[in-house]
TrEMBL record:
Signal peptide: none
Natural source organism: Streptomyces calvus
Protein name: FHA domain-containing protein
Keywords: Phosphoprotein
Ranges of biased composition (kind: Pro residues): 132-142, 151-168
Amino acid sequence: MGVLKKFEQRLEGLVNGTFAKVFKSEVQPVEIAGALQRECDNNATIWNRDRTVVPNDFIVELSTPDFERLSPYSGQLGDELAGMVRDYAKQQRYTFMGPIKVHLEKADDLDTGLYRVRSRTLASSASQAPSAPGPAGAPPAGRPGGYGYPPAAPAGAPPMPAAPPPGGRPGGYGYPQPSAAPAGGRTRYWVEINGTRHQISRATLVMGRSTEADVRIDDPGVSRRHCEIRTGTPSTIQDLGSTNGIVVDGQHTTRATLRDGSRIVVGSTTVIYRQAEG
């Protein structure tokens, strides 16, 4: 069973209690969990053949309405999300330099339903001794800096390579690079809109308000040719210069990699991307 599925099941066990109010938020906890997985993949640093270090300190930025709904449960939700990250890291054979922490913060520039994830690799005092401070405005030498700084090398580890070796992580921008489909398998692709399934039988699928679009979406917030899905390994979505843009898995973007279950918002319509072997 996948890590995200287990996470969902643990949350379902809490729905009948006070934690149920979390699910009234526009942002769903499982979406945040998926974003934390991608944050680990995209910031994984390969130290040597046996050690890949990933961030352990995360900040999830939420819109004011979402933050107000979720903040009373931030401790419990943070613990659940940290547990999910720990399970995922074990599955991927990632390692951490310190304890895993997930914090929620309010971001005034985000609309309801949108979020951002920031991360850093923060070493525990036991794994790294303090060092002298560096120049003003810069992180101390040998110490992990703020969110977005690369991790400091573990004690005794070989120098970090200038770039990951071919085929190593991280993958594409914002999302991990999925592995190729198993040999001999045939992947099926489709999208679900308002409960209706639309099969993707060609390499590309254009969605929009025009009758000439492959999938027509009757929504005044959708442009005539709004976006295009390209199937493959990985599948991607590209905005076609639409007026209102696209939101993929909670983040505004012009291009993104799709995974099975990705949520695409165009106008006021939610599209679920699906793919399966066989």
